[in-house]
Design a protein that fits this description.
430 residues, alpha/beta, elongated
Length: 430
């Protein structure tokens, strides 16, 4: 089974504690402190593996923990560093914070390796704390704690061209004919459950990467069927090719099919519907119509020609019109910006780690509104999307774990009172 999203727990290693010890040698009866430093905790690192094309492995292993640093030793011995944990993912994997949904890293383009959680620093041994007035310190610095996070992995296919269309219109057959891809092909709905990539070579250095996006259905943008799983793969493509059954072998209307899919693209993400499109009218060698019936190719030209969309009659089985389609796509790609779609980082892990040490104040103003302000609150609101359900749950958890709710109750807040935070107002209820 293809898997293009997963939720996993990651945790870096704790720093090793500094050691407390003193020199004890035969001829050194009052030796000074010689406790060594603790080792650094291991990092959690995500790295692209071009040999992977699914997130299936993460269905079986959901917890990834790096090793902690070792404690320092006697005679100024430094504790061993914890080993970094390298997690390999397919190119195109987007790593999001599970609670807020914000992007931590996009493993595509030039970003092939990234440290997501840094291990804790090792603590200093007591040898560092000797002074003229304290020559025998009996304390050392503890190692910094580990950092942990639930993250959501999403795989978004990277291709120049995406083949889209309803199930069983011939996308897989077309891809297998024009590229080196060999997708499973059969006369069943939803045969393709995962996107296949193929390289189209037009000679003289020309060519592009084409993806067979699994068949869409009406309601896909609302999550019907495997809608969201399929639609996310279209986000990185530069050109979309509508593949339709021009012969209406199964009684489908090719014009209505294209309009339906465009509505689903618009509903999922308006930017998808703005991508350049061409139409591959497949199965033209199987067209049969009575004299009084409308020519399906003419119907497509009338509906989409005025929109500047080119229509190419083809037969993926016999090869008719394939060459014209491919060179038409190549010419269209030349007009489209070649900058790869890379999702910007939205989640500041450093801010998350230091925010709990920042101050805040709780005060009641003259109107009876409880005002909560300070760097801790401002930073938290900066990386939290309060409009999403998960973001608001994260906000509530933050308020509770940081003692802010306790401070509000100490200030005398009661149910129904208003709390204001940097332009946001909430009614307080237990």
């Amino acid at each position: 089974m293809f898997c293009d999203h997963a939720k996993v727990f990651i945790k870096s290693g704790k720093g090793g504690d500094g050691h407390v010890s003193f020199r004890r040698e035969l001829y050194v009866p009052a030796g000074g402190p010689d406790g060594g430093d603790g080792g650094r905790g291991g990092d959690i690192i995500f790295q692209v593996d071009k040999g992977l094309n699914t997130l299936t492995d993460f269905r079986h292993v959901r917890k990834y923990v790096a090793t902690s640093g070792k404690e320092g030793g006697k005679r100024r011995c430094h504790g061993a560093d914890g080993e970094d944990l390298v997690i390999k993912v397919p190119e195109g994997t987007v790593i999001r914070d599970d609670e807020t949904g914000k992007v931590i890293a996009d493993m595509s383009g030039g970003n092939q390796r990234e440290v997501i959680l840094k291990g804790g620093k090792g603590g200093l041994g007591n040898m560092h704390f000797a002074t003229s007035t304290m020559q025998a310190p009996k304390y050392a610095q503890p190692g910094q704690p580990a950092k942990e996070l639930w993250v959501r992995l999403e795989l978004k296919v990277i291709a120049d061209v995406g083949l889209i269309g309803f199930p069983n219109v011939g996308k897989s057959t077309l891809l297998s004919r024009v590229s080196n891809a060999r997708p499973k092909i059969a006369d069943y709905h939803f045969t393709t459950l995962n996107p296949h990539l193929g390289v189209v070579d037009l000679g003289d250095g020309a060519g592009f990467v084409m993806a067979d996006i699994p068949g869409l259905i009406e309601g896909a943008s609302e999550g019907v069927g495997l809608g969201h799983d399929f639609l996310r793969h279209i986000e990185r493509t530069r050109v979309l090719v509508h593949v339709v059954d021009a012969a209406s072998v199964e009684g489908r209307d090719p014009v209505e099919d294209i309009k339906t899919i465009d509505r689903e693209l618009e509903a999922y993400d308006p930017q998808l519907a703005k991508k350049p499109q061409v139409i591959a009218a497949n199965k033209v060698d199987a067209i049969y119509r009575e004299e009084d019936q409308t020519d399906p190719l003419e119907a497509l030209r009338e509906a989409f020609g005025p929109m500047g969309i080119s229509i190419y009659p083809i037969s993926a089985v016999s090869g008719q019109g394939i060459k014209e389609l491919l060179y038409g796509i190549e010419e269209l790609l030349k007009t489209v910006e070649d900058t790869p779609v890379v999702f910007a980082k939205e989640f500041d892990l450093d801010a998350l780690n230091i925010v709990s040490s920042l101050p805040y104040t709780v005060e009641k103003d003259k109107d009876g509104v409880y005002v909560v302000e300070g760097p801790r609150i401002e930073k938290m609101l900066g990386y939290t999307n309060l409009e999403s359900e998960k973001g608001f749950l994260f906000f509530q958890k933050f308020m509770k774990e940081n003692g802010i709710l306790d401070d509000l109750e100490k200030a005398g807040i009661e149910e129904g009172d208003t709390v204001r935070m940097y332009g946001f107002e909430f009614d307080y209820y237990k």
